[in-house]
Amino acid sequence: MAEGGAPEAHEARPLTVLAALVAYDGTDFKGFQRQSAERGRTVQGVIERASERVAGEAVPVVGAGRTDTGVHASGQVISFASRARLDLGAWQRALNANLPPDVAVRGVAMVAPEFHARRSALARRYRYRILVDPVRAPLAERYAWRVAYPLDVATMAAATALLVGEHDFSAFGSSPRDRPGEGYRGHTVRKMLEASVHCVHGGDERRAGGSQIELRFAANAFLTGMVRRLVGTLALVGAGRLSLAEFVAILESRDKAHRGVAAPACGLCLTRVDYPADVLAW
Amino acid sequence: MAEGGAPEAHEARPLTVLAALVAYDGTDFKGFQRQSAERGRTVQGVIERASERVAGEAVPVVGAGRTDTGVHASGQVISFASRARLDLGAWQRALNANLPPDVAVRGVAMVAPEFHARRSALARRYRYRILVDPVRAPLAERYAWRVAYPLDVATMAAATALLVGEHDFSAFGSSPRDRPGEGYRGHTVRKMLEASVHCVHGGDERRAGGSQIELRFAANAFLTGMVRRLVGTLALVGAGRLSLAEFVAILESRDKAHRGVAAPACGLCLTRVDYPADVLAW
To answer: Which chain B residues are within 8 Å of A135, Cβ to Cβ?
Structure first.
């Protein structure tokens, strides 16, 4: 307690850097990244409004993955710094009390001052869900892309496995604008750590929902639109409209001309961001 | 073809009775049953608007289960009669083309003239999902009731098993108004064919969504609000606030005083309606 009971100067409080695990239903968001108000509601925007209310001052927030309009997240990670004197549980409760129902802070951790949600991340993990069903399925389509034609999952899995390793993915996406200076090749080369496809059968709900296919991708980083364009192109492979050789040729061409259209945002979810275990272990 | 090519009189066409399997996301509906327009949008209302557009005349629709406001369905069954000359596939496509995205006709079948979706049904099956999680989970709460405290699934399963068989369920619901004349006992006695609880673990999404508990109930018919009040009371058992003996006493009392409050509608889904196999085999 300061002598004489005078309130401690705000500037004298130590600056604490915090990380938060964030989940959101992306349906009603124009993506993660803050935009001008007239361009729409964003996840970063609603979190920064909440954190400002909690801290009593503007608290800029950094996100590990800049998810697009309509993309969901169960494991987004954000970082921010504040002088507010709140313990971790109080931060979580206060943020959640100020967030809308479609965003929630699932955990808060104290991290080292140099932590940066995006730059400190080792890898991002995404899941994409496809529902194979000729008929609309209202209970599934909020979180899955419905495809009306059959897909050969084994062929899709063979194509997906070819993505693992370091590749120039420029056929499937573009480098974010604000990361210049990495050199020509560095711009669009990413290291795919895991890529898999498997079928999830509908069980006794089969009549009401067709079969579900789940694609999972982990990479050090992803190009803008990369997962959705990979999924759109893999669906062409699954439908027999592209051969495995043609898929490889598209990847190797670094040319956007022959790839499939991007799969819809609703099927995509950022499930996890990996950090070095001594930096952030969630 | 009528002689002379004159259009056949509408009345001369045979009346066909059809059954349709219907799925809907109940979030934005004031339940299944048609109401006055100012009381809100109902599933029956949007289906009857669609069927009228398809058939060119009013087509009253009967539903097997009168789901409440906010309750979902993956296997609702409706029946209706029409003189429109459309094959089954054309009926399905035309209805779906005229239905909003949150309702879909998953199948259409021709049935005997005496078929009635509600009266011909042998049993209804409901699923209720509980998410046990102290923190909001935006990707799960559209289709599950989030409970912030731990639940003992084994004790809940023991209580649930006691429901199987013929019981007077008046402690948990009331008889629909329009079924009088069944006598005192007949009013609120229902035969529970199956009742079970099991835990569905979250796998690698665990961090983002806690553990999920699924309750399943099948009965010849259900009282109004019965499943949600059973679930609300079983949650008290799971939380240790009611003993098994107290749960039995509530069931046997036929008294609404000590039951739990109804669990929220979002967790409930009508998954299936059973008919004699020779009547409708879906």
So the answer is: 92, 96, 104-107
